[in-house]
Design brief:
Elements (H helix, E strand, L loop, with lengths): L8 H18 L8 H40 L4 H21 L11 E7 L4 H20 L3 E9 L5 E9 L7 H4 L4 E7 L10 E11 L13 E6 L15 E6 L4 E5 L5 H28 L15 E6 L4 E4 L4 E3 L2 H5 L4 H17 L3
Parallel strand pairs: 4-9
Antiparallel strand pairs: 1-3, 1-5, 2-3, 4-5, 6-7, 7-8, 9-10, 10-11
Helix pairs in contact: 1-2, 2-3
Length: 359
């Protein structure tokens, strides 16, 4: 390949070599005997494909430009082609520069998404239910599978707390699309219980975690305290006569995970361990990132209306993402799962920050 329009020619060379090695691995039938490994390799191969295609297109455009200039020196009819290629080469250089921004190591992972009701009481719980439905519809639109792995219902509807595992069916990484959804989401609307028609403000918190596989995080059973208890429904009403609900405490970190959505203790234990592994992976990633940069954006840990990342204004049918100034008057469509425009805006802003930082 020719020289790269960035300060990272070695990075490009390494990624091209990695893509070639993945192509060889994926052609080996033995690799596909391990579906999990084949899936990981396939995702990474698909992730590198746009960069490889752009690098090849840039090389071809540069070669064509050099040839067109030689021909134009003898035949002016080639000048139009020269001008066209002189425009195309910088476009491809810029695209390649963007693709060379260091990727998030978790971009190709599935996610566990948690929604927690916050300030606002019953209205906040109802809004948590609206957010869950929005993410489930978004997953459906993109062809992902979604599984509610734990839920604590609220008395008047919605959820106090709900966790859902979202998995890709192809090579697309879900974390790359949903990682900016974490934070406090604020809603402004007239609650169904409001007789005077006054607009109320409440909030719900969203936490997005890359789902950790067992190879990502090793959990020592000796570090766990596992308690069992009876599942309960809204208002504390018992819905299970056996101790099937599970609470796992990770003693070294103090992280506590409870699951009661499944009917068996074993299923709830496995669901709780899935969430625990993902939280431990997220904590490790955050610690490493904090050590490298004290300016890293972190997801909001408290559901405080003043620390919002996004506002959903029902009277004006408006959605506003405060981090990038995104605003649109199609709230009804967004809540029905049309999240791509706001996610694209967040992704573009993040890429621009990395480019500006010289990555």
């Amino acid at each position: 390949m020719s020289s790269v329009p960035t300060a990272a020619p070695d990075r490009l060379s390494g990624l091209l070599s990695e893509h070639a090695a993945l192509e060889t691995d994926l052609a080996d039938p033995a690799v596909h005997a391990d579906p999990a490994r084949a899936r990981r390799l396939g995702r990474r191969y698909a992730q590198l494909a746009p960069l490889v295609e752009t690098a090849r297109a840039l090389d071809a455009a540069r070669d064509d430009l050099a040839a067109a200039r030689e021909l134009a020196a003898e035949d002016p009819s080639f000048l139009d082609e020269v001008r066209s290629l002189e425009e195309r080469v910088p476009e491809l250089e810029e695209r390649l520069r963007s693709l060379l921004v260091p990727e998030d190591p978790d971009d190709d992972k599935d996610v566990i998404l948690e929604v927690k009701a916050g300030e606002g009481g019953a209205e906040s719980a109802l809004f948590a239910g609206d957010l869950l439905r929005m993410y489930l519809r978004y997953a459906e639109r993109r062809g992902w599978s979604a599984e509610v792995i734990d839920a604590v219902d609220a008395e008047l509807g919605g959820y106090k707390d709900v966790s859902v595992a979202i998995k890709a069916r192809g090579d697309e990484g879900i974390w790359s699309r949903l990682k900016f959804e974490g934070g406090v989401h604020r809603v402004q609307r007239v609650p169904v219980t409001e007789s005077q028609g006054r607009i109320h403000t409440s909030a719900a918190g969203v936490l997005v975690l890359p789902e950790a596989e067992e190879v990502d995080v090793t959990v020592d059973p000796n570090d766990l305290r596992i308690d069992v208890f009876r599942s309960s429904g809204p208002g504390g009403q018992s819905v299970n006569t056996t101790d099937s609900a599970v609470r796992i405490t990770h003693l070294p970190t103090g992280i506590v995970v409870s699951c009661q959505n499944e009917k068996s203790q074993l299923q709830n234990r496995e669901s709780a361990l899935r969430i625990l592994r993902s939280r431990l992976l997220a904590a490790a990633r955050e610690e490493a990132a904090a050590a490298a940069s004290d300016q890293r954006r972190s997801q909001v840990r408290t559901v405080d209306r003043s620390e919002r990342v996004r506002t959903y204004n029902f009277p004006e049918n408006r959605i506003t993402d405060h981090r990038v100034g995104y605003k649109a008057h199609n709230l009804d469509q967004v809540l029905d799962g049309e999240l791509d425009p706001v996610i694209d805006a967040l992704t573009r802003a993040h890429t621009a920050e990395l480019l500006a930082a010289g990555s």
